[in-house]
Amino acid sequence: MAIPVETFFLAPDAQGTLQAQIQQMIAQGILSGRFRKGEKLPSSRKLAGHLGVSRITVTLALTELQANDYLEARDRSGYFVSQNAPEPPAFGAPGPARDTIDWSRALGRRFTGGDTPEKPQNWASYPYPFIYGQTDPSLFDHANWRHCALQALGQKDFQSLTSDYYDQDDPKLIEFIARHTLPRRGILAQSDEILVTMGAQNALWLTAQVLLTQRRTAVIENPCYHALRDILVQSRCHLTPIDVDRDGLPPEALPDHADVIFTTPSHQAPTNATMPLARRKALLAKAAAMDALIVEDDYEFEISFLRAPLPALKSLDSEGRVIYVGSFSKSIFPGLRLGYLVGSKSFIRECRALRASVLRHPPGHIQRTAAYFLSLGHYDSLVRRMGQVFTKRRHAMETALADHGLGVAGRGVFGGSSIWMRAPEDVDITEVEPRLRDVGVLIEPGHPFFYGTNRPRNYYRLAYSSVPAERIAPGIQRLARELENARGTGTDRG
C-alpha cells in the first residue's frame, strides 16, 4: 500500500535543517505506527514538490533513513518502510480525553433514551432469529442487482450520476414509482408529488418536521411503530394515543381535535390488523370533519402472498388529505434505505427543501441501480420468490404455534412477515428474552410498541423473513419451553 503524499507536512515551528526535519517527520511516522512495514513512500520528486523543497534535500533524507534501517530501497520501485524498522512502542490504551464541558447544560436537545430497541448486530449467527425487518440473503437476486449496479456505472449514466441533483431525484426511479408502484395501490401521482427518502423512517421524520410543532397534536395508534413515537416525541408535539382493535384504528375513538393522524391501515404495526374498507372511508370522513391530515405508512404491501391487499387509504382520498409513505427496504433489503413520500405538491415542496438542507438527496448511484432493478422486472421476480418462500414459512410457523398452544394476538390476512403474539399475563417477555438468546432464539419483546408507563409486558413479535422453514418448528419448541419455565411449571413441552 502506498502512503499518500498528503500525509506528509513540515511543522512550521520545527527546528534544524530541512533535511533533518524530513528525516524526523518520516521517522516519527514509523515510530508512531502510522507508517507500517512494507508500505511505499511517495517518490522523491512528488514528495519534494508537495513539501516545496529541493529534490536533492528529500533524496539525502531518504538515504539517511535507509542507512539507519528505517527505509529500504527497491530497484526502480522507490523507498519502502523497512521490515527491520524499529517497532512502535507498545503503549497501553489511552485514557479518556479530559472533558471539562458540562454536557447536561450544553446539550440543547436530547435524542437518546427512546423506545426503539437495539437488535443484535450478529443476528444471523443465531439458529432461530425470529426478529423483524431482516431478510434471508439466499432469497436475494444478487447477480441481477450487481448487473444493474454495473449498468448504472456505465458511460451512458455516469455523467448524470456524478452530477449533483441538488434537491431532485433520479427521474428514472420517480417514473417507475409513478407509473408502476403507486398504481398497484390505486394511487395516481405526478412526479412533483413524489419524494425519494432514505427509507420509510426518514419519510416519517420529514413529515413530522414539516407538519408538527409544539402547539400541534398528533394521533398515534397504540400499540404502534416505536421509532415513529420516538420521532414524534422529538418533535415536541402533543401526542394522543388511540388503542387499536381487531380492525385497526377506530375512527370513533379519535379526539375532537387533532392536526395529524398517523396510521398503518393495511398492515397495522405491530398487530397486523387490516382496516376494512368501510372503516377507511369513516376515517377519511372523520379527518375531514376535524380538518386533520392523515399519514399512511403502507409498509410490506408487496409481501401479499395470501390475498391481494385492500386499496391504499391514499387511493380513496379526494381532498389531498392523505400523505403516503412507502419503502423498498423491506422487499429488496434493509440496508438499501430507500423509501418515498407521496403527497400534495405544496407538502412535497417543503419536504424537498428540508431534505436538501440535511442530505441533499439519497445517493444517485443507489437510486439509478434501484431504478434498473425495478424497471427490468427483477424486483417483481424477487417479490414472487419471497411470496412462495414466505407461504411455506408462514404455514410452518402457524403449525408450530398451534402444536405448542402459543397465543396468537394478530396475523396479517394478506401476508406480511410476522405474527403478533401474546403470552400469559403472568409472563414478562423482557425476562424471557435473554434466556431465549442463550438457547439460540431471537424474538422481539412487545412492550416498546405500547404508549404510556403501565405497558403490557407479555406481548412479543415473531418474524419469519430470515428463518428457513425447517428451523421454525425447533425454534418454536425452544420458545414454548422457556415460556413454560417462566410460568414456574418447569414443564418441558419439547
UniProtKB/TrEMBL annotation:
<dbReference type="GO" id="GO:0003677">
    <property type="term" value="F:DNA binding"/>
</dbReference>
<comment type="similarity">
    <text>In the C-terminal section; belongs to the class-I pyridoxal-phosphate-dependent aminotransferase family.</text>
</comment>
<dbReference type="InterPro" id="IPR004839">
    <property type="entry name" value="Aminotransferase_I/II_large"/>
</dbReference>
<dbReference type="Pfam" id="PF00392">
    <property type="entry name" value="GntR"/>
</dbReference>
<dbReference type="GO" id="GO:0003700">
    <property type="term" value="F:DNA-binding transcription factor activity"/>
</dbReference>
<dbReference type="InterPro" id="IPR000524">
    <property type="entry name" value="Tscrpt_reg_HTH_GntR"/>
</dbReference>
<keyword id="KW-0805">Transcription regulation</keyword>
<keyword id="KW-0804">Transcription</keyword>
<feature type="domain" description="HTH gntR-type">
    <location>
        <begin position="16"/>
        <end position="84"/>
    </location>
</feature>
<keyword id="KW-0663">Pyridoxal phosphate</keyword>
<dbReference type="GO" id="GO:0030170">
    <property type="term" value="F:pyridoxal phosphate binding"/>
</dbReference>
<dbReference type="InterPro" id="IPR051446">
    <property type="entry name" value="HTH_trans_reg/aminotransferase"/>
</dbReference>
<dbReference type="InterPro" id="IPR015421">
    <property type="entry name" value="PyrdxlP-dep_Trfase_major"/>
</dbReference>
<dbReference type="InterPro" id="IPR036390">
    <property type="entry name" value="WH_DNA-bd_sf"/>
</dbReference>
<dbReference type="Pfam" id="PF00155">
    <property type="entry name" value="Aminotran_1_2"/>
</dbReference>
<protein>
    <submittedName>
        <fullName>Transcriptional regulator, GntR family</fullName>
    </submittedName>
</protein>
<dbReference type="InterPro" id="IPR015424">
    <property type="entry name" value="PyrdxlP-dep_Trfase"/>
</dbReference>
<keyword id="KW-0238">DNA-binding</keyword>
<dbReference type="InterPro" id="IPR036388">
    <property type="entry name" value="WH-like_DNA-bd_sf"/>
</dbReference>
